[in-house]
Amino acid sequence: MVRKLKYHEQKLLKKVDFINWEVDNNLHEVKVLRRFHIEKREDYTKYNKLSRNIRDLAQKIRDLDEKDGFRAQSSHRLLEKLYSAGLIPTKQNLSLTQKVTASSFCRRRLPSIMLSLRMAQNLKAAITFIEQGHVRVGPEIVTDPAFLVTRNMEDFVTWVDSSKIRQHVLNYNDEVSSGFAFSSALHIICCWANKDVIFFPVTLFRGMTLTLWNKNNRIG
Hints:
3-stranded antiparallel sheet; flat
């Protein structure tokens, strides 16, 4: 027989659950934390608890009578919320809720969304951009990497207007588009070089103007 706890022992162990206790240094947990570059273990614990609550709620809804109108209504509302949050791919049936895990929440974190939008090469770089204040979601600047992006807000993830990274991106896109215009103009010249076709001057990038010739006369 185990002896009865003393008064001070009861006080110290009051909030300890000896039945449902979490194993420290869980291998799966460590893998998830490293994969998504999560620094706060508390975030993973919250995601794990939320995902478990979602699965339990879905199971309770499935246990209801199929003819019960409340079951259909509850299923629709739960699937709608989970789909809007980006935790499930479709709103087909409740079986999708069994695939909601802590990793599902991790994929909705702002760094993961930036990676899917190709705004960063890796999660580490995305986290750095966020913490330095280069990223905004809608009109609000977000500096917390744990920010969860809903499906509707995913299209509003962009760079801050004053960000130097945004300027670099714009400059790069301008150079690429200018190079495309130049190559397109050269392609036209090559295709029509041996034909008597009238051309007009073609304006290229950075104010350059190319005057085209036909066989007999200069045009422009």
